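Reopening: Ring finger protein 123 still failing for me.
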Amino acid sequence: MASKGAGMSFSRKSYGLTSDTEKSRVTGIVHEKLLNDYLHRVFSSPDHAPTAATSRKPLNFQNLPEHLDQLLQVDSEEEESQGQVEGRLGPSTVVLDHTGGFEGLLLVDDDLLGVIGHSNFGTIRSTTCVYKGKWLYEVLISSQGLMQIGWCTINCRFNQEEGVGDTHNSYAYDGNRVRKWNVTTTNYGKAWAAGDIVSCLIDLDDGTLSFCLNGMSLGTAFENLSRGPGMAYFPAISLSFKESVAFNFGSRPLRYPVAGYRPLQDPPRADLVQAQRLLGYFRAVLSVELDPAEGRLVEKESSEWQLQGQPTVLLTLAHIFHRFAPLLRKVYLVESVLTSFLLGVMEAGTPTQAQAVVRQVLDLLWLFMEDYEVHDCLKQLMMSLLRLYRFSPIVPDLSLQTHYLRLTIAILRHEKSRKFLLSNVLFDVLRSAVFFHIKSPLRVEEAGLQELIPTTWWPHRSGREGKDSKEVQDETAEERLRRRAYERGCQRLKKRIEVVEELQVQILKLLLNNKDDNGGEASRYIFLTKFRKFLQENANGRGNIPLLCPPEYMVCFLHRLISALRYYWDEYKASNPRTSFSEEAYVPPQVFYNGKVDYFDQQRLGGLLSHLRKTLKDELASKANILIDPLELQAATMDDLDEDEEPSPAAAQRPMQALAIGGALPLPRPSWLSSPTLGRANRFLSTAAVSLMTPRRPLSTSEKVKVRTLSAEQRTREDSN
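Support: Ran it again with your exact input. Result attached.
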């Protein structure tokens, strides 16, 4: 019976959790004794107390819902209301007070936890205050500029010049200037950097206030805080223009909890207990296998589990996900339970086994959960991974960043999940370019760089006046040892960075997959559609400000994208030998001069095109190999250029091996290398084209090309395939 059921295909609608008395006779369900043993093995009691086989209640799919309800009951202490707690005043869900608790112009995220300064020195506080006990909250530093983070009372008055810490009864830590503030200021703590996490702790029993940076205590900052009737402290921040942070009052698990201190917002204890128990039941399904032929259970490693379509297993999973699905929509539970579970899967077994388990878990999510539930779950899962990657401390081997990227790759390998994330999350909700940036360490000792590169070395000697000395001096034995030690350290660091870069390129290779259309849109088409909009918004700065990409992220993102495009280019060449190698490609400089590039109303650096052509005529001819037609110098505006001008003889004689991305290619090329794919991207942001701007060899006189108008390529579906 089981072997027959194992080959059946089960649609989601096949699973009804209410069953009649004939359920046990359904084809594929194992016999009564084995089913009873299996369900007792999977749904053991929370305390794991051993139960005699003769005394335990027989289990089947008729009484399993009642048994599950009993197992998921939580203690009254865990069910206590999340409302008023002694020592805290305000809503149980703590957010930033965007209605009245602010000064200046600020941009607050939709979740009311992220804030961007949009004036000289804006200030905002939370909706909840504390007057007794020990409390903490965390601030995720997105930019390392001028900010003062801490606590204030409701009577504090701020303006565009005075913020948190500049008035009585307000206290702040400033990691930009490495100081603490309470009317006066003194040195305190360490410098922070983008990607750090600041923990703000207040002890109203002893009247002290302290801070931590990435979990490391910076010591007591203030003592003898004012306490008593009418004195309560709000989390608060003052930040200058374009500085940004995100608060975690407890809506997500604290990255660095401190013993004895309580987050301002209580975790969903009852839901958390239920989610952890349901995850335990799910783990049990992965670690036990039915053997109907022998009538026994077989223990196995969860990394070896395979979804074989056995009705008994599928019905068991249906009961689990019936209760698990609503919980997996909540931010706290996704990060605390699901993300932790998947990260554990990636650590167990081989990479191939781990990716197989993640793929099957995602299959089960799509099978047993409603679409809107899966969408919320995947969105929260990717947001959790992005935060973990961005705000992880730098360690010498970059193991934390590598770990999070590998799980991201495993999720994106799942086709249905990848297409949903591309269409709705990666560019619309997240600043996904963060995945392609490697955070630079600000504190050398914490990043372990002193052990990795124990010595420094300079390749040039400098004279007394600071200029390089022209005299070549022999290298001493000591200098030789320093140089070799320095070079070895740099090579070790380079190899570790290359591991992370390769994982980042793998992500883009998945997003550029063109073979998964399956009657719909391929991942590459969805990516290019979103990527064009992403470039437009970042080129003119008119997009959603919280999602705009900082320059350092953009350069890394486009560098990885070019690497992925080179991979697909060379893959195409393997089957089309007449096509040139990607190494021979470059962006012709004329696309930045011919006046037909849409810069989205951005002002051109250096002046109008006519002025640039007149003043830079000689430089263009000598350095960029571009000859300026005297007739084009008469064009008063860029619109006067002749779009139908024929190529010059010099251009026609250009060697067949010289490729120009964005222009006409003389040799066959992949259709995906048309302008919307790479050429137009490089036109929008010339930064991305730096590595491709210069040809691999100098051009001869006969190869110099004339500046002419490139016909605008039309965006079509075929361009993206």
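Residues 34 and 294 are 10 Å apart (CA to CA). If you still see a failure, please send the error message rather than a screenshot.
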